[in-house]
Amino acid sequence: MLQEIIFAGFGGQGVLSMGQILAYAAMLENREVSWMPSYGPEMRGGTANCITIISDEVISSPIISKFDTAIVLNQPSLDKFEKAVTSNGILIYDTNNIIKLPTRNDIKIYPIPASQEALNLKNSRVMNVIVLGALLKLRNTVKVESVMSALKKVLPERYHHLLPLNEKALMRGMELVNN
Fold this sequence. Notes:
By secondary structure, this protein is α/β, with parallel strands linked by helices. The chain has helices at about 15-30, 75-80, 115-120, 125-140, 145-155, 165-175, and strands spanning about 1-10, 30-40, 45-55, 65-70, 85-95, 110.
């Protein structure tokens, strides 16, 4: 198994966190992992992306330009990374921040109303976990239990009371995928 995933959006949307949580979850399952964040100097509000690679074998290089899966949370990220998805790959996007829809017909495209669903859960900060749930349903990369354990490691202890909400968000993301 080899999964090469790009997470992209504005700083503050939880883009880097999604990749980091997935990487931690894969490490808990004894997989080989590479996590490479990239963000502009302005961070919150600027562009941010990260590459997360998960494999059952040693990862030769974290530097890649084509991805099995792209998760994009804003229009500039869609414009930049839609063409970087491999043929037969997956593109997941949050419907809230996309005006010009993806146009490729050689990939599977999944619009997820993650921002709206996060508001329905009464916490906009779980939008990224909803999208992560969609990814888990489509790629079955790691187990939900591993993601929850990773969240416990990644979230500061003062936010551990939000773990049940994050689990609910993860499950909601899985429900939103029609594959």
